[in-house]
Known about the structure:
Layout: H1 2-27, H2 33-46, E1 49-57, E2 60-71, E3 74-81, E4 88-92, E5 95-100, E6 105-110, E7 132-142, E8 145-154, E9 161-167, E10 173-179, E11 185-196, E12 215-218, E13 226-227, E14 232-234, E15 242-249, E16 258-264, E17 269-276, E18 285-288, E19 291-298, E20 301-307, H3 311-319, E21 321-323
Parallel strand pairs: 6-12
Antiparallel strand pairs: 1-2, 1-11, 2-3, 3-4, 4-5, 5-6, 7-8, 8-9, 9-10, 10-11, 13-15, 14-21, 15-16, 16-17, 17-20, 18-19, 19-20
Amino acid sequence: MIRTIRSFRHLVALMAAVVLAAGSATAWAQPSPDELLDRMNHVVTTIDYEGTVIRWENGKSEVLKIVHKIIDGVINEKLITQEGNGLEIIRIGNDVHCILPDKQTVLIEEFHNQSTLFSALPSSEIRYGAEYDVSIVRGDRVAGRAAFMLAVRPHDEFRYGHRIWLDEETSFPLKTEIIGIDGELIEQIKFADIRIGSNISKAALAPSMSLDNYSWYTAPARFAAVEVDTDWECIDLPSGFRATSTRTEQLPGADAPVTHIVYSDGMATVSVFIAEKNETQFVEKSNLGASNTYSLQRGDVQITVVGEVPAVTVRQIAISMQQN
């Protein structure tokens, strides 16, 4: 009788544990993909953080230290490579100083992306069910923090897949992966450790060495872009892509302004540059990590298409550009 009671109590305790676990899982309200993406895109431009990042691409990895702080609404950032020549990148708004200690040189450039590390994050404009399937998985950990995993799977060969691990507490992207059409890993950015919302001093954003004896160079700046109408269009644009801007720009080294058309599907972005043909030799196609480029000459113009999309996408857009 005593043994039966003990067995019954053990069964009740086991059932209670199961019910509690089920209750906890039910109580967790899974956010929608749109909510997660909106939070993520907001937090990468508004939150302070610092940590160690491991970036993997083309079979090679590099370790970076990053300090990121918003001061009066302006992005202030320091990125330091932990190997090689010790490159440091200091960013204040759109001004970027690339410090090369081995050459005692500083190169000043302009940079207009909202995030130095995460330049290819998706927006909530992704057409779920049309070009991508999106699912959310809970329970993984990155850099010691609980995270959601957002899986974005394309329906065709014209775009990459993405996996994004978002911090449960803040929706900050702790880890991102770009997946090729065959399922291969193309690029990964992962925090090994991170402090989010930490009290970062302005001194932490200063160069790590004195620049008194360094040579300073300024990269040629682009002239201001002007939004224009154009009679150029892609007559065989992959489904889901649409033109988001058309403008003329004066690029460094170009004799005349170029037409710059941007196509996007809410996740992937492709730039088309239409310029006067010149006599210099050009490369038909090239690849760097997730980025592909395809160029061709047609009549008196040269068309160059570049984007973080598969090679088939930039080629199809390039050969399908037509002037009406």
